[in-house]
Amino acid sequence: SEFQKLLVIKVIRKDVLTYLTEKYVLNTMGKMFTESPPMDLKGVYEDSDHRTPIIFVLSPGADPMGYLLKLARDQGIEESQFTYISLGQGQGPKAEALMKQAQESGGWVCLQNCHLSVSWLPKLEQVLEKAAKEDVHENYRLWLTSMPTSKFPVSILQQSIKVTNEPPKGLKANMKRTFLDLEESTFEGCSKPEIFKKLLFGLAFFHAVCQERRKFGAIGWNIPYEWMNSDLEVSISQLRMNLDEQDVVPWETLRYVIGEVNYGGRITDDKDIRLAAKILWITINEKALTKGYTYSSSGHYYPTEETKLADVIKYVENLPSLDKPEVFGLHDNANITYQLKESNALLNSIILTAPSAAAAGGGEGAKTPAQKVTEMAEEFERRLPKMLTKKGAHPDTFEGMNEGKNTLAVFLSQEIVKFNKLLSVIGKSLKDLKDAIKGLQVMSSELETIFNCFMLNRVPDLWALYPCLKPLGSWYNDMETRLRFMRGWLEKGPPKAYWIPGFFFPQGFMTSVLQRFARKTKIPIDTLRFRTEPLKIEDESKITEAPARGAYAYGLFLQGAGWDLKQAKLRESDRNVLFSPMPPIWLDPITKKDWAQKDCFECPTYKTSIRAGTLTTTGHSSNFVLFMYLDTDVDPGHWIRRGVAMLCMLDT
């Protein structure tokens, strides 16, 4: 059947699953289930009454306030009768007062951004319950806007009308909206019209690229920021002001104010600030004013020569409807990354909405969920590695640790404690889970969560003591591999090369290598950094001895680019190859004044493909390990726009 074909596709080509699912829904249920209906606020208003709240479920970049203000005018609601307030700290009592006043006078109230005040929402729930029993003016309407949040009271959702409106998708739609919203007076209001209009077009392009790159996930931006039209409007005003007040174009000032203040002000990851600056440089530079300049290699996108706003809008309407990744500075493979991201989101949504009984599956004679989970628990218990112990360790492993010379031994000791804690947690939870299934102990919420994770092939939160995105089966195999490496280091002495992905805290390993060199040479550690040199060998098996200083690291993967092993340089990715294994890399400690890799690409290394993490005291994400410096024949900005990074582990 068609559905069985989808199941096969899910296994062998997950990247096209979303497209084929949409086609399946179209063929089986009809067109109305695959196309978003146009926003009909008037119809929503007519369906509502004075006791029914209307909730706008927001999506990034979508703002319904313009539509709402227009509806109020069309319905004859005066400005004084329509009040709105953005919720946040201390705004709850003000919102209550506005609602009480409007219920008596028949006005409208809009409470914006309810997701920012989830602690007050139970109070809103009480206010609505109270209003249901009192006399309320029949013209009264309550409008709410909120991003999706699990903490929104269910009772409010059940009694309300839900509306959503996604913003236009694609570069063309984004730029068209910018120029349609632009006033003629703004477009014509600069003393240097030719320069202003070209750079204004570049700003609109930059704004659209920043927003549309979010769909590619971490290779687009480490964190998906929510830039607003107000960021673009302020940038346009500053562009006009700088051009009016100065005789020459202040390029550096414009790039700094727009890239690092206006747009960079929303950015919390330093690698994303670097990326925003490189994207902006494409549109705000001296060459952008010359004829024949293009924003991308395809030549479809360039600063238009049109001088009238209507003509610029016509030009934008003729841009390609489908955006190729190259226009965002990305490789064509980024489309596969995007499609996989969409497919995973679809599958996760299906799992969330499916009843738990559906996970059992099977027909007559099939195993019950309890039987399946018991088998998995017994298999995991059988394979569970033994605890790591210093007893029987190789003499070289901890030699010199007590004198402070062997800093890597200190790091190993810390890792052993963490791995033993993990093994203890896994062993206890597996035993408790089997006992709970047999009825020998209570099935607690914690054990029930582990049970459900086993059924969905997900890693239980209780076990996730280090970041890893692999499914349960792969995660367990990876955990066993980590333990084998650590046991080998413990029992056979320091290895010739170190498997970086195998550590709980790889940043600690880097510091230990620097400390060892600093104590040996008496050079202060704060004057040291790594010179990174990828070796011209395929894998660590070719390494015959450890380096005289520093350490060899292996096990990393390159995302967004390929690697030329013979030349030891970055190159473009092969088609359909998302990740390239890197050769072993020499981490060579060197003083900062002797470091000479400024022309190399500064490649960030992350633990997982999500890249984002919590901000640490170092100013970096907790997912960030270190920068590796890689040789390149092209400008490093090219690889920054490509979203190139190294990862410690893949998701499968």
Task: Please describe what this structure looks like.
The protein is α/β, with parallel strands linked by helices and 652 residues long. Helices cover 43% and strands 11% of the residues. It is built from 21 helices and 16 strands. It has helices spanning 2-12, 17-29, 41-47, 65-74, 92-105, 121-131, 154-159, 171-181, 184-187, 193-212, 229-245, 251-262, 270-283, 309-317, 334-353, 369-383, 407-438, 445-456, 472-492, 506-521, 636-642; strands at 54-57, 82-86, 108-112, 141-146, 161-164, 497-499, 528-534, 551-554, 557-559, 562-564, 569-571, 579-581, 585-591, 601-606, 624-630, 645-647. The strands form four sheets. The chain has a five-stranded parallel β-sheet with strand order 2-3-4-1-5. A five-stranded mixed β-sheet has the order 12-9-16-14-15. Helix 10 runs antiparallel to helix 11 (229-245) and helix 10 (193-212) runs antiparallel to helix 13 (270-283). The longest helix is centred in the middle third of the chain and has 32 residues, at 407-438.
